[in-house]
Design brief:
By secondary structure, the protein is an alpha+beta fold. The chain is built from ten helices and nine strands. Strand 6 and strand 7 form a beta hairpin.
């Protein structure tokens, strides 16, 4: 069910109304309106009556804000708020009429018996009651609108902070995992006296600079992400040695296209991890990165060795896995619903597609 809310004013309009209220402009306008429509008594009485009416409205606004709203409505005591309002508003209107009757008696020297005539007095009371209720409604609506705007500002701030914390957490999941694997690979090359060990250290240095420095930004140019992937693939090829069916295809119109950093790293790493290229003679890793018409398309396909642990589990009709779940979380946090993330898996192959 769709939640129904009061129509809200923009914050700028609320601030303007508050300033007009504090500067007294609203009260001056109210005095002019009431004085203009007042048809009873002489000029002195109309002035005094209008001033008293405006004073009663000011007191009503203060009473509603400081007592009814602050003490009852803001504390969720809705029943008491409604009951006291129903009781107080007619009394407020009656007091306003009573003050006018007293002014008529003392200013124009009219007897009370002549002033208090049922039809006229009742009509005057109803008019004042409408004014009082209208003032009450405006104050309450203003309170809800201000509260809704403040709640929205707080919610947006909390959402932004939560987003930043989640992104930092997801990055922290990636960086140590990558570093430990890379160091293990370097250790293996050094231990076996591989001539590529020195070049591997250089590649690792470039990759770490990307991870630790460039990835501190929320978004980075696509060229840097591609360079990291190229270094990662070269690093893996040096570790394995020999020829392997590993291909990276690039077709990028604009290398300054901005992308979330380290977004593709878990997928590329899984390609090598589960294809087991060093022991799987028919294994392959094929990666495609394309950017045409400002639309980013990434595809990664790899074989899955028979003894490799499944990279995907199916739960509640949702594909998950540590690496893929991380990627999907970051896609949601960075791009909302404006992305495509698809996984295709069969017995021998695994394919991931991302479109932005």
């Amino acid at each position: 069910m769709k939640k129904r809310t009061l129509p809200t004013l923009p914050t700028a309009n609320l601030d303007l109304l508050e300033r007009l209220y504090k500067w007294g402009v609203i009260w001056i306008v109210l005095f002019i309106i009431f004085f203009a429509v007042h048809s009873t008594g002489n000029m002195l009485f109309r002035v005094v009556s209008s001033l008293c009416f405006v004073g009663m409205v000011v007191l009503e606004v203060l009473f509603v804000n400081k007592v009814l709203i602050a003490s009852l409505l803001a504390k969720k005591r809705l029943v008491f708020f409604i009951l006291i309002s129903i009781f107080v508003l007619p009394i407020w209107a009656a007091l306003s009429i009573g003050i006018d009757i007293c002014f008529l008696h003392f200013i124009e020297k009219r007897p009370f018996s002549e002033i208090v005539a049922f039809p006229l007095t009742f009509m005057a009371f109803m008019v004042r009651l409408i004014w009082v209720i209208a003032t009450f409604a405006v104050v309450v609506i203003f309170y809800f609108q201000r509260k809704e705007n403040e709640d929205k500002i707080i919610a947006d701030k909390l959402k932004s902070e939560k987003l930043d914390m989640e992104l930092r957490y997801l990055k922290s999941q990636i960086n140590p995992h990558f570093l430990f694997n890379a160091l293990n690979n370097i250790y293996s090359m050094v231990y076996t006296h591989d001539d590529n060990a020195a070049n591997g250290v250089l590649k690792l240095s470039e990759m770490l600079r990307y991870v630790l420095v460039d990835c501190q930004a929320d978004m980075i140019p696509l060229s840097k992400e591609i360079k990291y992937i190229e270094n990662f693939i070269d690093f893996q090829m040096m570790r394995m040695g020999g020829r392997r069916d590993v291909h990276l295809v690039k077709d990028v119109e604009n290398e300054d296209f901005m992308i979330a950093p380290m977004l593709l790293q878990p997928i590329i790493e899984n390609c090598f991890k589960y294809s087991r290229l060093e022991t799987h003679p028919d294994g392959y890793v094929h990666v495609s990165i394309r950017l045409t018409d400002n639309r980013f398309r990434f595809e990664a396909e790899n074989t899955v060795a028979e003894n490799a642990k499944p990279v995907t589990v199916v739960s509640d009709d949702k594909k998950s896995g540590i690496g893929q779940k991380n990627v999907q979380q970051r896609l949601m946090l960075h791009y909302g619903n404006d992305y495509l993330f698809d996984i295709e898996q069969d017995k021998d192959t695994y394919k991931v597609k991302i479109e932005l």
